[in-house]
Amino acid sequence: MEFFQILWYILWAALWIFYFTLDGFDLGSGILINFISKRDEEKTAITNAIGPFWDGNELWLITAVGATFAAFPTAYANMFSWFYIPFFLIIISLILRGVSIELRGKVENKKIFDFFIFIGSFIVTFLFGVAFGNLWSGVYIDNYGYTKGTLGLLNSTGILTGIAFVVFMSMHGALYLYWKMEGEFKIRIYEISKKLWTIATILYGVYIIFLPHAKNPNFILNSINGYISLTCYIISGIFLLLIKKSIKKGKDFFAFIKSVLFFIFFFVANFSSQYPNIIPSKIIEFNVSIFNSSSSYKTLKIMTIVALIFVPIVILYQIWVYKLLNHKINPDDKETILY
Amino acid sequence: MDYLFISRLQFALTAAFHFLFVPMTLGVVVLIAIMQTIWYKTGNEDYLKLVKFFGKLFLINFAIGVVTGISLEFQFGMNWAEYSKYVGDIFGVPLAIEATVAFFLESVFLGLWIFGWKRVSKKIHLLSIWMVALGSNLSALWILFANAFMQRPVGYIINNSRVELIDFKVFLLNQYGWVKFFHTVFASYVVGAFFVMGVSAYHILKKNKEEIFKKSFKLAAYFSAISSIMVFIFGDFHAKDIYKFQPTKFAAMESVWETQKGASYPLIVIPDEKNEKNLVEAIKIPYFLSILATYNPKAEVKGLKDFPKDERPPIWLTFFSFRTMVLLGIIFIVISFLAVYLSYKNKLENPLFLKTMLYSIPLPYIASQLGWIVAEVGRQPWAVYGLLKTKDAISQNLTYSQVIFTFSSYIIIYTLLGITGFYLMIKHTKKGITE
Question: Does the ipTM exceed 0.90?
Answer without folding.
Answer: yes
